[in-house]
Amino acid sequence: MLVITMENLECTVGEDGLNFQCNLCDSEVVHSMAEILLRGLATASVDSTTGDIFKSPSAVAVGMKSELAEYLIQRSMTLVREAVDGGEDHSEQLITASTMPMEFLSDLIDGFVASKRNLLSHVSGFLSSENRLNKIKDFIQKMDMENFWAQDGREATAGTILKSIDMKCIMHCPERFDTQDKLAEHRTLCRFRTVNCKNDGCLASFSANHIEKHDSVCAFKVLPCEQLCQQHVMRCEMDRHCASVCPMKLINCPFYQVGCESAFPQCVLDKHCSEHLQIHLMCILELTTRQDTFVNDMNQRLHLLEKAQSLNELSGALDVRTLTLTTKEQEAKIKKLEQDLKVQETKLKKLESEFKSGKV
């Protein structure tokens, strides 16, 4: 359980005479909270005007923005004040607020949005519809394009909320000073000051306390080759380097296809070939011998096939010749029968003629 005492509030109260407070915040957290604020405003504006033909989200957004910001700041401060004064037990909320400010802010916004939904939103099933989500997304883009709630303004609101709930001063600087000069000197070294990435080509900026975190993932960070060659390569180019031009890239021996199955860094290719010249020659000789044997075998197979084909063709030729002779014999027989038939027809006509003339 998080115990709230006045000692916990030193980061926001300070000592007498120390009128200049640093108040720098973790820029990454503030930026994320600012994005949540914009979505919260869009959601409240859309849900409060659902089905209202006389109002649009744009018409209510101006008043809704002021109301939302005031509600969030007052609610977060009240939560801390009640805990310090020994009022209601908000320990779980304060733990969430101190360790997960984005989740805490989202919860507060959900409560605000719920209070702004009109009757039609509740009864129409609109809250779970894809149409609602699209309207919210479109209105976010519209506000962003028109710079309706500027990034600086949202981050200022987010920073105010963060400083009020960051009880352990994990995400903002609580330091106070008695002069402006001392404050200015401190801010040049403050862990929450904004810094730019020093890697060439990277345009990222962030709080100084995230230097190591960013450096561990920065695409422009120059690193020693992962395959331990002598070169240094940007993180975003490492995969391409290792897979293509790196001298330590593993490759197969050029004589792999003839039997040498060695794999080695491409920088030692010449050395490998010179040291294994005899082995490579033996591999080629064995391959040549195998190929000669194979060729001879194929030639024999080809010869047998050609011979078989010739026999088949001869057999076919004999069959055709026999068929031709048989056909000719049948044609000769038919022709003889035709001739005999003509002779009989002639004789029959002659008898008919004699019978008519009375000679028979």
From TrEMBL:
<feature type="domain" description="TRAF-type">
    <location>
        <begin position="214"/>
        <end position="265"/>
    </location>
</feature>
<feature type="coiled-coil region">
    <location>
        <begin position="320"/>
        <end position="354"/>
    </location>
</feature>
<dbReference type="InterPro" id="IPR013083">
    <property type="entry name" value="Znf_RING/FYVE/PHD"/>
</dbReference>
<keyword id="KW-0862">Zinc</keyword>
<keyword id="KW-0479">Metal-binding</keyword>
<dbReference type="Pfam" id="PF02176">
    <property type="entry name" value="zf-TRAF"/>
</dbReference>
<feature type="zinc finger region" description="TRAF-type">
    <location>
        <begin position="214"/>
        <end position="265"/>
    </location>
</feature>
<dbReference type="GO" id="GO:0008270">
    <property type="term" value="F:zinc ion binding"/>
</dbReference>
<dbReference type="InterPro" id="IPR001293">
    <property type="entry name" value="Znf_TRAF"/>
</dbReference>
<keyword id="KW-0863">Zinc-finger</keyword>
<keyword id="KW-0175">Coiled coil</keyword>
<protein>
    <recommendedName>
        <fullName>TRAF-type domain-containing protein</fullName>
    </recommendedName>
</protein>
